[in-house]
Amino acid sequence: MQTLDQAVLEAALGWLAAADRRVWLCTIVAGTGSAPRPPGTLLACDSAGGQIGSLSGGCIEDDLLERLREGRLPDTAAVVEYGVSAEENERLGLPCGGRLQVLVQPLGPDRDGAWLRAALSAMAERRCLLREVSVGANHTDWRPAEHFAPLAWDGDVLRQTFGPRQRMLLVGAGQLSQTLAELALAMDYEVLVTDPREHVRAQWAGPEVPLLGGMPDDVIRAEASDAHSLVITLTHDPRIDDMALMEALTGAAWYVGALGSRRTTEKRLERLRQLGLSETQLSALHAPVGLDIGSKTPMEIAVAILAELVRLRRRPA
Is the CATH number of domain 167-314 3.40.50.1970? Predict the structure, then answer.
C-alpha cells in the first residue's frame, strides 16, 4: 500500500509523460495558527483537471484549480500565501488565524522527471531522499539522506525529506493488537502482526494485515530492523515479549515499546539485564508503552500509544 506522498509523486510523474499536459506540484512550506495540514503536505494537479492530494480539505484546492483554469498558476516556482485576512480565512474555510504558505512548482519531464523517479525508488526501497528546491533559480536538486528530517524553509530554499512508510510490528495478536492495528492503519502506518501461537493468530478479528508466525526475534530481524520501523510487544508472555525486545533493542528500530504495568516493567528490565542488555539499550525501551493518560480499555491504550508516537515524530530534531 502506498503512502499519500508516493501516490502524489507517482501521479505527477505519470502526467508528465503526457505531452499535452502541464503539471504543478504544490507543497505546504509553512503554516501558522490552526493550519489544517502540516508543512510538507503535497498536492499535484495538471492542466487536464487532474488532482491528487490535499492541502486544506477543500477550499484551497478549489482556489488552485480556479487559478489553473484561468491560467494564473505560475510558470516558475512561486509561493502563494493563504489566510492573510479574516475574510480570506472565512472564504477558504481555514481555522481562525490560520495561515499557509504553499510553494507552487511547475514540473517538466526533463527538469523534474529524474528526481521524481529517484524519490519513488527511495521510498519503495525504504531509503530517504532529500529534495532541495531553490525558488529563485526555479531548480530542484536531490541527494540520498541517511535519516528523515523535518521540512526546512528559509523563504527561498525548501529542503524536504521523502522516506519510506513507517512500519509498525505488533508482537501479539490479541484484542489490543487488533484495536491498535486499526487506528495505526488510519494514521498511515504499515502494520504487521506476529505471534508464534497459531491458535491466537487463528482468532484474529482485526483489519486485514500480514499475520506472521515463527519466533518474534526472527520476524523482527527480517521485517523491522531498519530506522523506519517500530516494535511494540503486547502479549504479556515474557517468553515471547522478552525474545522480541532483545532483538528490537539491539537493532535499528526507532521506537520499541512494551505493554505492562510499572511493576511488570521493573521485572522485565531486570530479566533483560540478566540476558546481557546494556543500560543504554534498556533506556531506549518505552515502557509502560504510551502516554500516561489513565487508559484502561483497549481503545484507550491504543490511543495513548499513538499519541506518544505523534509526540515523538513531531518533536523538533
Answer: no
